[in-house]
């Protein structure tokens, strides 16, 4: 790689394409998982425990954040930035930018390493041309670039899935106990990052079946045992509490699965059709290429096609059936799609190798549009979106004595409420008194607001329902507009990315408890239209994207 100008130019370009957007939204977290995992990691550090207490995610990525935050604290303490651990905690509660940036920078670096892995392993297995196509796609794919800017597990998932997929292919061509073991290890690491990677096991299983059919090696049981033993090691080494608290993690998994099938989602549409259209819409001709390459794989059914196609189809069928939509749920099999498409592009480029114009045109139509899309995202990340505009307006126009209510499932404004941490927040009971006492010093901070929560939490959740997500949301009831007024709320702030799906969804598709929640939201917004006075509206446009934010005076 030392004298390989292609890969170095590509890595440098990919770095600048990603690094520009890592400040987007700060100090607010536009991805709710980013806030949740950062809070969980810091909680573990404060308790000096590896137990997350909330068991809906595997712990690998949270442990990584915990390690990064330990290093951050030690460096900050040595430099005098953080006087003590309390000061460190206060920093997160009032301005968590440095915590998100730490995770985001690591994810950018992991994303660049993924490109290198695509190039090096693909070249070893398939040759230079396939490797270059694969590296280019990984460097420019819209979703890969955008998710590398958040401190969430997806970029690490893509890295482990990429290594696992390519090692599985290497195992097919070069069967050995070592290759089986390495493939299993990285499958386990991928599953330990996000459960969605579970179907990668089918790729290794397909290799084993093909080896048995082709009689290419004799140590079938030894090799398969090495692979699956390494898989368990890869998973449990960073998820050890799965062994000790199996029932808690299993219930957490059930809760997340139920949420996928039950929750109202910002992205919604017909099963499978939504996934296909969204991949094509966001990834353009690369997305089209994924499905064309899959079709070619189905038709030809060569061993390499089967190894890649089986996990892709299984994941697509499973994820596509969910009520809650998101392209990131398919990330574990994107590396397989990239390899399939790159192999097809390799053959196509060989056919037109003497036609320079066609080769140049192929390169332009494939890679220039995603490049421009990502540059556009870079540019608008440097501008203020509607949430940032609303934040600045609130700071200037709403006094500390006036109470607001922000109706959104995550507080993605660059503001905070000290009383959320001392009194009413979900984790306020666990926050040490010394932290609560010190954070009250920030009551007059420009970013501090008096926010009234829109939900009432009951002491117990329902136990007579089969759906875990229904049981979870049964703990909460939305306040009515009259209740908010009686609590002294002057301004209600709404976010179209929250209420839009509730107003537009087909209510008949949901469980009775979710229907009740949807009707609560619909009645609430009908009351707002009748009673509320629109003080200011922040509409998204081409250069200032985001949700429609309306500030109502009630």
Helix and strand topology:
Elements: H1 5-19, H2 32-47, H3 60-78, H4 85-94, H5 97-126, H6 128-140, H7 142-147, H8 154-173, H9 177-193, H10 201-214, H11 220-236, H12 241-244, H13 246-262, H14 273-300, H15 303-320, H16 334-351, H17 356-381, H18 386-397, E1 403-407, H19 418-424, H20 433-439, E2 450-451, E3 455-457, H21 468-473, E4 476-478, H22 481-486, E5 489-495, H23 496-504, H24 512-531, E6 533-538, E7 549-553
Parallel strand pairs: 1-2, 1-5
Antiparallel strand pairs: 3-4, 5-7, 6-7
Helix pairs in contact: 1-5, 1-6, 2-3, 4-20, 5-6, 5-8, 6-16, 8-9, 8-10, 9-11, 10-15, 14-15, 14-16, 14-17, 15-16
Q: What features would you describe in this structure?
A:
- Helix content is 64%, strand content 6%.
- It has 554 residues and is mainly alpha-helical.
- The protein has three domains: 69 residues, no CATH class; 246 residues, no CATH class; 168 residues, no CATH class.
- Helix 4 packs across helix 20.
- The chain is globular.
- It starts with a helix and ends with a strand.
- The mean pLDDT is 94.
* Helix content estimate: 55-70%
Structural class: mainly alpha
Outline: globular
Major sheet attributes: 5 strands, mixed
Total individual domains: 3
Indicate the radius of gyration in whole angstroms. 25 Å
Strand content: 5-15%
Q: For the largest beta sheet, what order do the strands appear in spatially? A: 2-1-5-7-6
The unreliable regions are: none
Total helix count? 24
Distance from first to last alpha carbon: 63 Å
- DSSP strand tally: 7
Average pLDDT value?
94
């Amino acid at each position: 790689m030392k004298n390989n100008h292609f890969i170095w130019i590509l890595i440098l370009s990919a770095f600048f394409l990603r690094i520009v957007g890592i400040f987007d939204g700060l100090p607010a977290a536009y991805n709710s998982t980013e806030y949740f995992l950062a809070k969980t990691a810091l909680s573990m550090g404060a308790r000096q425990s590896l137990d997350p207490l909330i068991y809906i995610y595997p712990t690998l990525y949270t442990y990584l954040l915990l390690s990064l935050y330990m290093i951050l604290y030690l460096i900050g303490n040595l430099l005098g930035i953080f006087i003590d651990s309390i000061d460190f905690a206060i920093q997160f509660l009032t301005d968590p930018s440095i915590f998100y940036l730490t995770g985001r920078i690591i994810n950018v670096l992991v994303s660049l390493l993924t490109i290198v892995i695509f190039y090096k392993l693909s070249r070893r297995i398939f040759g230079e041309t396939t490797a270059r196509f694969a590296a280019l796609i990984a460097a420019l794919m819209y979703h890969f670039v955008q998710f590398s800017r958040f401190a969430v597990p997806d970029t690490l998932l893509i890295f482990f899935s990429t290594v696992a997929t390519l090692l599985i292919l290497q195992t097919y061509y070069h069967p050995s106990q070592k290759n089986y073991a390495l493939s299993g290890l990285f499958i386990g690491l991928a599953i330990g990052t996000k459960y969605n990677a579970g179907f990668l096991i089918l790729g290794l299983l397909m290799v084993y079946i093909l080896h048995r059919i082709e009689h290419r090696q004799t140590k079938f049981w030894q090799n398969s045992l090495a692979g699956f033993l390494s898989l368990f090691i890869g998973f449990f080494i960073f998820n050890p509490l799965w062994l000790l608290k199996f029932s808690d993690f299993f219930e957490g998994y059930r809760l997340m699965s139920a949420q996928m099938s039950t929750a109202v989602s910002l992205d919604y549409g017909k099963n499978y059709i939504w996934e296909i259209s969204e991949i094509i819409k966001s990834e353009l001709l690369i997305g089209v290429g994924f499905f064309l390459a899959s079709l070619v794989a189905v038709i030809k059914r060569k061993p390499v096609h089967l190894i890649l196609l089986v996990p892709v189809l299984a994941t697509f069928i499973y994820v596509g059936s969910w009520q809650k939509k998101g392209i990131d749920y398919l990330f574990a099999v994107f590396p397989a799609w990239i390899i399939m498409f790159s192999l097809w592009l390799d053959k196509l480029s060989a056919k037109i190798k003497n036609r320079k114009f066609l080769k140049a045109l192929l390169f332009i139509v494939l890679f220039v549009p995603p490049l421009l899309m990502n540059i556009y995202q870079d540019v608008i990340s440097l501008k203020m979106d509607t949430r940032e505009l609303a934040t600045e307006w609130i700071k200037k126009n709403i006094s500390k004595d006036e109470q607001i209510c922000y109706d959104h499932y995550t507080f993605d404004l660059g503001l905070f409420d000290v009383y959320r941490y001392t009194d009413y927040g979900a984790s306020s009971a666990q926050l040490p008194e010394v932290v609560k006492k010190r954070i009250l010093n920030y009551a007059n901070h420009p970013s501090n607001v008096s926010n009234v929560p829109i939900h009432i939490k009951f002491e117990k959740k329902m136990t007579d329902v089969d759906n875990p997500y229904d049981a979870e949301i049964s703990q909460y009831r939305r306040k009515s507009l009259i209740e908010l007024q009686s609590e002294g709320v002057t301004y209600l702030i709404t976010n179209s990315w929250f209420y839009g799906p509730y107003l537009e969804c087909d209510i008949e598709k949901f469980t009775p408890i979710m229907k009740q929640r949807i009707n609560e939201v619909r009645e609430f917004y009908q009351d707002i239209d009748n009673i509320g006075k629109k003080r200011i509206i922040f509409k998204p446009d081409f250069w200032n994207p985001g949700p429609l934010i309306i500030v109502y005076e009630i």
